[in-house]
Write a sequence for this structure.
C-alpha cells in the first residue's frame, strides 16, 4: 500500500522553511536596526502570490484566528513581565492614552482617511479605529530588542498603554462596522447600546482577568517553585490557562485582550518565584506567536492590489504618526506634568503592528463594501511604522533623553 504523506510534508516544509528564513534574516537585520517583525512581514509578502514564492493564500478566517490567539499569548507574556510597581507608576497616564488617546487618534486619522481616500464618514472613521491603537507585540518586542533602558515612567506608560488599548480599538472597530452595515437611521438609537457594550467589555474583561489571575497564581504557588525543572510544563499551564480565559471572556461578551493582560499582571506579581522559572519558555511561545502571525498576515497581502491606494495610505500613515498620535499624547499627558521630551518620545514609539492588520480583517469577514481597502491601508500603516519608528527607537531615546540615566528636570 502506497500511502502518500504529501498533504503533511509539503505544508510543513513550507511553513518551517518560512519561519527559519524569517528568523535567520531577522538576526542579521537586527544588527543594522531593522525590526524582526518587519522581516516576518516581508518574508510573508515574498512568499505570497505576487512574490517569488507564488503561494496563493487568502484565508482571512484562519489568519483572524491565528492573529487573535497570537495576540493573546503576547499580551499574556507582557503582563507576566510587568511588575506591580511599574503598573502603579504608569497606570493613570496609560488609561488616558488607552481611552481618550485612542478616540482622538481615531477621529483625526478618520478625517485624513475621509479627505485622502474619499470615504464616507462612517467608513473613514472605521479606518481610524483600525489603526488607532498601538500594538503590544511591536512595543514589547522592539523595546526589548532595542537594548535601551528607558526612564521608569516612560517605559511603564508605553508598555501598559499597548497592553490596555486593544479593547477600545476593537470596540470602535465593531461599532463603526455596525454603523456602516446599518441603513443609516439607527445611529442615535444605538448610542445607549454602544455605551453598555463598552462597559460590558471593560467590566467583564477586568473582573475575569483579575479573578482568574488570582486563581491561577494560587495554583502555581501550590505546585512549588519549579526546582524540579518543570518550567516548560508551568509555561504550558500558564499559556493554556490564559487562552482559556481569553476565549471565555470573549464568548461572554467581555474584552479577552484586557482579561488576558490583567491575568498575566496578577499571576506575574502574586506568583513571581514560580513564574520566573517559566519566563524563558514563555519568551519562546511569544516569539513563535509573532512569527506565525506576521508571516500569515504578510501572505494575505497582494502588493499589486495594494498599489492602487498606496499614496493615500501613506498620507494617512504620516498624519497618524506626525499629527494624530502626537496631538492625542499631548492632550492626555501634558496635564500630568510629562516633559516635552517625554511626550515626544511616547508619541514616536506609538508603534503599529499586527493589531491594525488583524482588526482590518473584521470588515472583510463582516462583508463591508470595499473592505479590502481597509486591509491594504492598515498594512501600509504598519509597514511605515515599523520602518520609520521601529528602526529608530534607540536613536530617538538618546536624542530625546528618555534613557534611564537621563533624569534631568522636568520641563
Amino acid at each position: 500500500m502506497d500511502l502518500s504523506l504529501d498533504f503533511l510534508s509539503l505544508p510543513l516544509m513550507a511553513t518551517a522553511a518560512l519561519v527559519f528564513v524569517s528568523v535567520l534574516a531577522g538576526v542579521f537585520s537586527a544588527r543594522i536596526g531593522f525590526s524582526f517583525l518587519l522581516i516576518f512581514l516581508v518574508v510573508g509578502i515574498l512568499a505570497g502570490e505576487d512574490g517569488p514564492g507564488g503561494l496563493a493564500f487568502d484565508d482571512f478566517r484562519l489568519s483572524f484566528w491565528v492573529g487573535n490567539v497570537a495576540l493573546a499569548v503576547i499580551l499574556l507574556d507582557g503582563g507576566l513581565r510587568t511588575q506591580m510597581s511599574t503598573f502603579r507608576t504608569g497606570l493613570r497616564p496609560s488609561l488616558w492614552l488607552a481611552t481618550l488617546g485612542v478616540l482622538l487618534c481615531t477621529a483625526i486619522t478618520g478625517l485624513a482617511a475621509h479627505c485622502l481616500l474619499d470615504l464616507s464618514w462612517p467608513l473613514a472613521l472605521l479606518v481610524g479605529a483600525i489603526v488607532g491603537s498601538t500594538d503590544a507585540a511591536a512595543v514589547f518586542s522592539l523595546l526589548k530588542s532595542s537594548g535601551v533602558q528607558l526612564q521608569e515612567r516612560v517605559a511603564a506608560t508605553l508598555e501598559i498603554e499597548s497592553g490596555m488599548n486593544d479593547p477600545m480599538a476593537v470596540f470602535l472597530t465593531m461599532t463603526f462596522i455596525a454603523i456602516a452595515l446599518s441603513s443609516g437611521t439607527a445611529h442615535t438609537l444605538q448610542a445607549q447600546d454602544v455605551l453598555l457594550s463598552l462597559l460590558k467589555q471593560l467590566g467583564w474583561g477586568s473582573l475575569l482577568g483579575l479573578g482568574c489571575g488570582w486563581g491561577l497564581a494560587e495554583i502555581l504557588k501550590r505546585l512549588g517553585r519549579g526546582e524540579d525543572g518543570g518550567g516548560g510544563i508551568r509555561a504550558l499551564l500558564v499559556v493554556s490557562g490564559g487562552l482559556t480565559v481569553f476565549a471565555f471572556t470573549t464568548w461572554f461578551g467581555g474584552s479577552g485582550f484586557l482579561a488576558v493582560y490583567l491575568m498575566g499582571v496578577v499571576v506575574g506579581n502574586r506568583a513571581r518565584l514560580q513564574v520566573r522559572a517559566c519566563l524563558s519558555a514563555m519568551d519562546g511561545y511569544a516569539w513563535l506567536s509573532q512569527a506565525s502571525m506576521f508571516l500569515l498576515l504578510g501572505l494575505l497581502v497582494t502588493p499589486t492590489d495594494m498599489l492602487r491606494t498606496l499614496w493615500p495610505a501613506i498620507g494617512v500613515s504620516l498624519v497618524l504618526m506626525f499629527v494624530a498620535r502626537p496631538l492625542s499624547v499631548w492632550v492626555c499627558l501634558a496635564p500630568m506634568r510629562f516633559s516635552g521630551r517625554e511626550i515626544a518620545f511616547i508619541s514616536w514609539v506609538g508603534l503599529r503592528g499586527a493589531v491594525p492588520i488583524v482588526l482590518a480583517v473584521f470588515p472583510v469577514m463582516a462583508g463591508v463594501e470595499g473592505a479590502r481597502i481597509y486591509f491594504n491601508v492598515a498594512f501600509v500603516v504598519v509597514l511605515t511604522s515599523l520602518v520609520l519608528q521601529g528602526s529608530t527607537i534607540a536613536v530617538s531615546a538618546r536624542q530625546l533623553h528618555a534613557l534611564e540615566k537621563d533624569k534631568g528636570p522636568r520641563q
The first helix runs from residue 6 to 30.
